[in-house]
Description:
Structural class: mainly alpha
Number of helices: 6
Distance between the termini: 55 Å
Oligomer: single chain
Amino acid sequence: MDLTGFLEERSQAIVDEATGAIGRVHIPHYQVGNETRERFETLMRALVDSLSKRDLTSIVTHAHDIAKKRFDAGFDLSEVQTAFNVLEEITWKRILSEVEPSEQAQALGLVSTALGAGKDALARTYVSCATHAHAPSLDLGRLFAGI
């Protein structure tokens, strides 16, 4: 099975569905609209590029870049992680409904590995940014102050 061809052929439909799904999650910085759609398109391109090359550089580089940008823009890490999760869920649904059962495990494994590497890079970069600036979403002091 040509997973990258499969995803390229369905990328617009996957992005459409992900854009609609993120609107139902109601996270502040990701609402249905052109900007969110463009974010999903870019993430999908990075995913397909990584899978086609069997090299995680594209998705990891993209994750590093957006972590810095989203941190600077005041996004919570969970918002960006949710966007990755939504794209993964929609992609999984497509694979499970359209790919032969004998090929599903490999396809799901490749997609999950690539997006997992992206989510890991995203989290590590975001936390690295937070160590250099006060980030309310990572302020654990309140937990220990009894508030």
